[in-house]
Amino acid sequence: MKIDSSALARWRTARRIALGTIVVAGTMSTAAAIAHRVADHPCNGAHARADIQSYYTYSGIGIELTRDGDDLVVARVFPGTPADGKLFEGAVLLSVDGESPRHIQQWTNMIRGEQGSSVELEVVYPCSGRDTVVLERDLVRVRY
């Protein structure tokens, strides 16, 4: 029996291609299974990472302050916080616990405090006059 060398070369090439395809397919299948398992794990999933560092928590009343010239103004009231429904955007802060701090950081430090303690704010609204608001500090959770 005579063996055709070109047929043998073609058979060897086909065998290499088939074996290579099996190896590549197995590698891809294993990698996909591992990636799926890691992604579904509660400690490694994108959902777990988003929950870990997407909130800033502090004890206070839940307002964002901004400067308007020399005035310190309530820029935003966070929903569900002690200030919600009692202070409103645009309120100009006049005093906190009877004092008028000079710098925004001093205002912030005086407004924040121990959870359950109270803070008194005197404010003025451009359209309706002065108001004194007493709020109980609570944990405020702000998403960022």
Helix content: 25-40%
Look at the structure and give the mean pLDDT.
85
Number of structurally distinct domains = 2
The CATH homology group name of the largest domain = PDZ domain
CA-based gyration radius: 33 Å
In short:
The chain is of the alpha+beta class and 144 residues long. The chain is 35% helix and 32% strand.
Description:
This protein is an alpha+beta fold and 144 residues long. It folds into two domains: 5-52; 56-143, PDZ domain (Pdz3 Domain), CATH 2.30.42. Helix content is 35%, strand content 32%. The protein has helices at residues 5-40, 46-52, 104-111, and strands at 55-60, 63-68, 71-77, 92-96, 118-125, 129-136, 138-143. The strands form three sheets. It has a three-stranded antiparallel beta sheet with strand order 4-5-6, with helices on one face. Strands 1-7 form a two-stranded antiparallel ribbon. A hairpin with a 2-residue loop joins β2 (63-68) and β3 (71-77). The longest helix has 36 residues, at 5-40. It is rod-shaped. It comes from Enhygromyxa salina. InterPro entries: PDZ, PDZ_6, PDZ_sf. It holds the Pfam family PDZ_6. Residues 61-105 form the PDZ domain.
Keywords:
144 residues, alpha+beta, Pdz3 Domain, two-stranded antiparallel sheet, 3 helices, PDZ domain-containing protein, PDZ, PDZ_sf
